[in-house]
Amino acid sequence: MLKINNLTKRFGGLAAVNNVSIEFEANKINAIIGPNGAGKSTFFNLVAGAMAPTEGSIEYQGMDITGMACDRIARLGIARTFQTTSLFDESTVLDNLIVGHRLRTQSRLWDVIINSKRLRDEEKKCRSRAQEVLDFVGLSHIGHRITADISQEEKKRVAFALALATDPELVLLDEPAGGINPEETENLASLIRKMVEHGVTVCLIEHKMDMIMNLADKIMVLDHGEKIAEGTPEQIRSNPVVIEAYLGSDDDAAA
Amino acid sequence: MNALQKISEFFMTPAMKIVMILAALLFPFVASNEYQIYVMALAFVWAIAVYGMNIITGLCGQLNLAHGGFFAIGAYTLAILTVDHGWAFWWAFVAAGVSGALLGFLAGVVSLRLKEHYFAIFTLCVGFIIYLLIDKWEELTHGALGIINIPAPSGFGLVDFTETTPFYYLALVFMVLSIWLAARIANSLLGRSFRAIRISDELAASLGINLMRNKVLAFVLSTTYASVAGALYAGMVRFIGPAEADVVHTFDMITFLLVGGIGTLMGPLFGTLAITWLTQSLQFLEEYRMIVFGPLLVVLVIFFPRGVVGTFLTWRGRRLAAAHETAQKESASEKKPSSNKATTPRNQEAGNHA
């Protein structure tokens, strides 16, 4: 589904991502782990098109998407969530989600001025898609609330829903369980499994090891921008290079 | 529902629109003198420009400090075409709108490459360049002398727009049209794209929204609003000078937006009218008016960052959400399906951007 070849991103002399090659399969949960500053978020930014790589290529479903603009990549079916969830605080939760399906619509300024049938149909479509994804993430009971008033975990779920509203095939989740408690983390993990059951491929960055070990089908370990290991959770757990990277360089990341 | 809530609900009904339009139509008959009608008409003209600013700054989140400059471009296009080239008023009026859109497109394509503060600073410079061009390019703009004897809008022999009251109604028509279009945009998918950009560029791009195209569109819409307002202004005061492009006008408009409620639909109108009349009633203080305005604005920005209208809408939204939950609980305890469950959130949402 996603094939990364020799991906490199340099900021001046620093290689944030260095010569990383990996393949992510469809309908699987793929995790990227590594100590702080290992280049995980940069890796996501490269895949999502937020920045262009210095070298290497990214292939998505057989198509070369290297250096393609963010919004085009989103239309091809790659959605993402961010470490910090930014939403429109003054609007209701449901209202926040309607724009998520905008990329599948065609209406322009002229449709808005004459209030065309196309616009009305598309708005109906976006609204029903918003309701669907809200149900999917289990938040239909708070759809009417002002977004500023919902909990951190609920905001994470809204961010998931927003990503799902774009009808993605691949979802990149950047630290989905950051800042929420263990019980909520478990609930979020089940939601991620549910997404995969519904045909979405997931790729996530996470620091919570027990969550990753239970959840992931495949793990890639980054350290100082380089891929130091890839494999199943069992393989990663017993990999001496990984253990050294964690214990030797950055203790808090292993916590 | 108590009385306060009943009143607040009335604000959100279509009947409120009719009441407001009726009030505006009747205003010239109840005004105690012609000057009041004149001030109101002028406020309407400014409100049109403020609605434009609300599209780029309120909806799309890009602080455009060249807005006053585009107001002046509209005014000068109309004045130059009618006075120096003998164009009929309404043709020159259309040309003013078009020039605002075209120049807005050029300025937008360049300045929107920058983000946040850099964009604001860049547009501040664009506004100043517009001012300098108007002030120094004497062959075209008559320089510091300004342009006099601008014709009033042609009434085609039916109406005389040199009179204050007919012009008042003309300004009212244009303002209502502006609000109508602004409402259409704000409540549409296009407006939602703009608001997504306001939340964050990254988020909007990750949702497949083309940042540049949408930002330029919002910018062009706003400069068109500004230049149309400027053209009306020229036809009203019939004498313009380089001072029309002064950055002070831009900051006035930002004040109107902040007071009324940035990003809301009725905020620009409320803010413009409120500040205009406050200014009028504080005339006796002359320059010391700012002693009243300054602290007022500071208090407002600290405690009501969404302005008067925005604060009202948030308060109402919270109340409706609470009412919705109470209704849900009651219907759950009575073990019967809630009939209004499906309609409540939708009603609330429709009003959220009013």
Note the topology.
The complex is a heterodimer of chains A (255) and B (354).
Chain A: E1 2-11, E2 14-24, E3 29-33, H1 40-48, E4 55-60, E5 63-64, H2 70-76, E6 78-81, H3 93-98, H4 109-114, H5 117-136, H6 152-164, E7 170-174, H7 182-197, E8 201-205, H8 209-215, E9 218-223, E10 226-231, H9 233-237, H10 240-249, H11 251-254
Parallel strand pairs in A: 3-8, 3-9, 6-7, 7-8
Antiparallel strand pairs in A: 1-2, 1-4, 4-5, 9-10
Helix pairs in contact in A: 5-6
Chain B: H1 3-11, H2 14-30, H3 34-59, H4 67-84, H5 89-111, H6 116-136, H7 138-141, H8 164-187, H9 189-199, H10 201-206, H11 211-237, H12 247-260, H13 267-281, H14 289-303, H15 307-334, H16 343-352
Helix pairs in contact in B: 3-8, 3-9, 3-11, 3-12, 3-13, 4-5, 4-6, 4-11, 5-11, 8-9, 9-11, 12-13, 12-15, 15-16
Account of the 3D structure:
The complex is a heterodimer of chains A (255) and B (354). Chain A is α/β, with parallel strands linked by helices and 255 residues long. Chain A has two domains: 1-77 and 168-255, P-loop containing nucleotide triphosphate hydrolases (Rossmann fold), CATH 3.40.50.300; 88-165, no CATH class. In chain A, 40% of the residues lie in helices and 24% in strands. In chain A, helix 5 packs across helix 6 (152-164). Chain B has 354 residues and is mainly alpha-helical. In chain B, 76% of the residues lie in helices and 0% in strands. The chains are: A alpha/beta (255), B mainly alpha (354). Chain A binds chain B through residues 48-50, 69-72, 74-75, 79-80, 82, 86-88, 90-92, 94-95, 98-100, 102-103, 105, 107-109, 111-113, 115, 119, 122-123, 126, 141, 143-146, 149, 162-163, 166, and chain B through 181, 184-185, 188-193, 195-196, 198-200, 202-203, 205-211, 217, 221, 263, 306, 310, 313-314, 317-318, 320-321, 324, 328, 344-345, 348-349, 352-353.
